[in-house]
């Protein structure tokens, strides 16, 4: 168990009025216990209690590490799992029981047969908010993952050549990540040429590169369990004045937003810094998504940098800054870094250049 992380979640539970929290997200359980289990359809849950040791409910098939700070309750396929769980919970004289936002209906409905609905509350914010503020170990792992991503980006642009397709480039990315020491992708890579980049979630296809195309890479890897994410937009052989203007607008918006990141700033106000630059240049309707997302054990974690999130930043938060301009049938430009909020301001985790680069 990671005692400091557990204490932070218990504090969040108290703020929610929750006595016990039945947590089922495997990555959150890994975050708190170090137990790395992929349960698939089987029941796997950690019960955090305001008093007493946490209880880990696990199938006998799962390989668990010894931990004296955990009470482990094992079950087998076919056992009445929720009856077993509620029996243990009743022993703790639970008042409000917190449940996981992602709890499958097959388990939640069974729990509701034994527990009054008014005594249940979604308690996931207690762990989501804790995960949103990285401790020293997590910060170093995130920085290491981004260092690999920087190295990889330098290799990826070398895959671009006359006659290549998006899909052909994308198929070569994993091998480069593995050579550089990553464990794999943190998400399926996005490679887009020319007008395809105007679709922010375009999947690589058979589009052939042509002169004057933008070349967008939105890529990330996983290293030591933690994710990286970065976007760079290049040009093949030439870039028109119009395309240069679009690119420099996005870069100015991105750098303006990064310069505004420091503790005590509202996330929505950081979004506004970039959005205002793009709007002033006449491309406001063409910036169609939030400015950024939180990241860690998952590529997209709870919380975002958007007009809808008014929380204050605090040291240890890590999120993306990724404005974009998308012009249908013409071009898409996005530039993305990950930033760590520090005591004084912010640290950019990506070092790869953002200067406009024409590949030849």
Automatic annotation (TrEMBL):
GO terms for molecular function: aminopeptidase activity. PANTHER family: AMINOPEPTIDASE (PTHR46112), AMINOPEPTIDASE YPDF (PTHR46112:SF3). The keyword DNA-binding does not apply. SUPFAM superfamilies: Creatinase/aminopeptidase, Creatinase/prolidase N-terminal domain. It comes from Fretibacterium fastidiosum. InterPro entries: Creatin/AminoP/Spt16_N (IPR029149), Creatinase/aminopeptidase-like (IPR036005), Creatinase_N (IPR000587), Pept_M24 (IPR000994), Peptidase_M24B (IPR050659). Keywords: Aminopeptidase, Hydrolase, Protease. Residues 5-132 form the Creatinase N-terminal domain. This is Xaa-Pro aminopeptidase. Residues 140-343 form the Peptidase M24 domain.
